[in-house]
Amino acid sequence: MTTSSPLLKVENLVLHFQTNAGIVQAVDEVSLELDRGKAMVILGESGCGKTSLAKAILRLLPRNVHTYSGSVIVGGMEIMTLSDENFRQKVRWLKMSMVPQAAMNSLNPVLKVGDQVAEPMMSHYDVKKPEAMRQVARMFENVGVPLDFINRYAFELSGGMRQRVAIAMSLVTTPDLIILDEPTSALDVLTQANIFNVLKRIKHEIEASFILITHDIATSSELADRVAVMYAGQIVEVADALEFFPRPLHPYSERLMASVPKLRADQEPEFITGQPPSLLDPPTGCRFAERCNHCFERCSEEPPVFSLQGRQVKCWLYAPGEERYAEYSGESAGAEHAI
Fold this sequence. Notes:
With 339 residues, this protein is α/β, with parallel strands linked by helices. It contains ten helices and twelve strands. The protein has helices at residues 50-58, 84-90, 113-124, 129-143, 159-171, 189-206, 217-220, 241-244, 251-258, 323-329, and strands spanning 8-19, 22-34, 39-43, 65-74, 77-78, 96-99, 177-181, 209-213, 226-231, 234-240, 306-308, 311-313. An eight-stranded mixed sheet has the order 6-7-8-3-9-10-12-11, sandwiched between helices. Helix 6 links the parallel strand 7 (177-181) and strand 8. Residues 332-339 have low confidence and may be disordered.
């Protein structure tokens, strides 16, 4: 029995920036996969490299890039070897699109929102404006924007409507993968719920794949099929959402979940002591060690990624021979499961 290849496969992706203070190791040897029609949520504190990872995948790079390497395969196409022009013509908007952070403020204030959403179609598919506007109308209907808003300007729309317009723009060329960077961070709770309902419906109706970047654990669970936890520029855990939320494995993931208020449990939210390390000079060994309650001598060495029943965790507690490895895997110690 053969299995289909993943839509997105990222291997050893590195993105470092040159600054006046030194080299910022924003994304450091990140690897992950995403299947078609699925949604992956990337969780982590502010400053852990989530947005930089999105920009690395999409090749939206600033001028101060110091190191950019690795492999990004989308739909079987290796995009890291494409020229900038080929990437623009073959990949951006067609295979991948993005809803950027603070997207509701990224719309051009002097152009009608309908014209802005139509522009990617007219540019990449060489369609005339009337046909492009018909597609815009269909996208507006999908995301819940009234059709008469096509001829309005961004400043005439509420924050929630501007966010929906930004989502419509990312969908108008029907890409395989949409990356959303904190799509609801500046919205009220009711509007957040409405936006996530839109995303869930779109995911099922058009079988789009999503990467949702957020630090909002509670709302992310609404959309997630897979969860990746990022800390200090590295992915420290990857698991199916149904397995991750009830039982995170990495100590950092455990602390993240403990910080979420629980409606049906008499338990106060906890906090993570200390601060994330500087990405200018990240520590050797495990990068979470200084804040970890389970730190032991071996943590002075950088752990590999261990695979346990389809989950990946970058922590020495899950090395073969350790108590947690035996407890979770149900296998005897000694079998090598590092990848």
